[in-house]
Specification:
It is a single chain. The chain has 188 residues and is of the alpha/beta class. It has a single domain, classed as Rossmann fold (3-Layer(aba) Sandwich). Helices cover 34% and strands 29% of the residues. It has 6 helices and 9 strands. The strands form 2 sheets. It has a 7-stranded mixed sheet with strand order 3-2-1-4-5-9-6, sandwiched between helices. A two-stranded antiparallel ribbon has the order 7-8. Strand 4, helix 5 and strand 5 form a beta-alpha-beta unit. Helix 1 packs across helix 2.
């Protein structure tokens, strides 16, 4: 796994997803060397970069120009730029131009209606044995994602992750919590 501090980041763009979260997303997606992965809402490209180290190809999508620029810098820095196609567009429009995929990662979706349409499109384009993974911090997003995966018979599972990092002080160790995040996942 790439250390968090080894990614180029900016205050203007979310990410990268923390190392522990990237690790769990990789695990729950069951990524393999033959997979085509689509990362919707790629942010700074943390998950895109990790997936590109393991998958056949990654398509990274974000509507934010700065996010696309940071992802481009990170995939180049970590020598996976040949395995990543970048699309600067909203998730719905970008997904319409993609034929199929083995894994859909959804890290950014906007409103409930946008999430619903993104999930509908992504699920419809999953290959047999395709997997979908959604990372969410908002309770409503978690509920909406689980409900949509249930409607589509993907038998969703959800884990809530609370990571705390130890900081060594003169007197002892202080644990500082990161934001909790849910990982919702399912398989065709």
């Amino acid at each position: 796994m790439i250390k968090d501090e080894d990614f180029i980041s900016s205050q203007e763009v979310p990410g990268p997803s923390k190392e522990e979260i990237r690790c769990l997303v990789l695990c729950k997606s069951q990524v393999s060397a033959n997979d085509l992965v689509v990362d919707i809402g790629c942010g700074t490209g943390g998950i895109t970069t990790e997936m590109a180290k393991r998958a056949k190809k990654v398509i990274a999508i974000d509507k934010n120009s700065k996010a696309i620029d940071l992802t481009k810098q990170n995939i180049k820095k970590h020598n996976v730029d040949e395995k990543v196609d970048l699309i600067k567009n909203d998730g719905i429009s970008a997904l319409k131009s993609i034929e199929s995929m083995d894994i859909a990662i959804i890290g950014g979706s906007g409103s409930k209606d946008e999430l619903d349409e993104i999930l509908e499109l992504a699920i419809s384009k999953l290959n047999p044995n395709g997997r979908i993974v959604i990372t969410a911090i908002l309770i409503n997003t978690k509920l909406d994602a689980v409900e949509k995966l249930k409607q589509k018979n993907l038998n969703p599972e959800i884990i809530e992750v609370n990571v705390s990092r130890g900081h060594i002080l003169q007197r002892g160790i202080m644990m500082k919590a990161e934001n909790p995040i849910s990982i919702i996942y399912g398989k065709i």
